[in-house]
């Protein structure tokens, strides 16, 4: 058996859930790796809505998409993911967050607990049955530790009758190893 790393596990989950034609969200575009994967999964008939608060990240993502010929199905927004309701009310099949700071960017500019929890709440309302919200949590910096604690506390309180919530981590790694939380919307229970 070969255990999957954190990002490969998150990407494998997206590959299992996202279908051609789906509507998906990349809540933290960063350097565009997740955005490109989502664009490939939804194909030309699907749609990716991508957010980042840094124009540097939007530009890097746009370049990656254009180089791969996958920009036509992607809408990039230079704004906080907390503003999702201003940009869509469509059912969402999947969303992914990479919490922390932009790799190679200013480490003082990070995601925050308040905006992250607000956007998770919005996405939970839009999520299709069987759809997922994937949170890749990097917490090796002070703001990341606060955000991790808030996100974990929030996720532990999500009603189990409505959502499954999974945590995937390597518990023997040092230096605040990243981990994944996946929120999956369950099928409503039938009344007897």
Question: What does this molecule look like?
Answer:
It is a single chain. By secondary structure, this protein is an alpha/beta fold. It has a single domain (6-185), classed as Rossmann fold (3-Layer(aba) Sandwich). It has 6 helices and 7 strands. It has helices spanning 6-17, 33-42, 55-68, 84-87, 113-126, 142-156, and strands spanning 23-26, 47-52, 74-78, 92-99, 127-137, 163-168, 179-185. It has a 7-stranded mixed β-sheet with strand order 3-2-1-4-5-7-6, sandwiched between helices. α2 packs across α3 (55-68). The mean pLDDT is 93.
Ordered list of secondary-structure elements with their pairings:
Elements: H1 6-17, E1 23-26, H2 33-42, E2 47-52, H3 55-68, E3 74-78, H4 84-87, E4 92-99, H5 113-126, E5 127-137, H6 142-156, E6 163-168, E7 179-185
Parallel strand pairs: 1-2, 1-4, 2-3, 4-5
Antiparallel strand pairs: 5-7, 6-7
Spatial strand order of the main sheet: 3-2-1-4-5-7-6
Total tally of structural domains: 1
The level-1 CATH class: Alpha Beta
Share of helical residues: 25-40%
Per CATH, the superfamily is Vaccinia Virus protein VP39
- Distance between the ends: 42 Å
Radius of gyration: 16 Å
The average pLDDT score comes to 93
Helix and strand sequence = HEHEHEHEHEHEE
Briefly summarize what is shown.
This is Class I SAM-dependent methyltransferase. This protein is an alpha/beta fold.
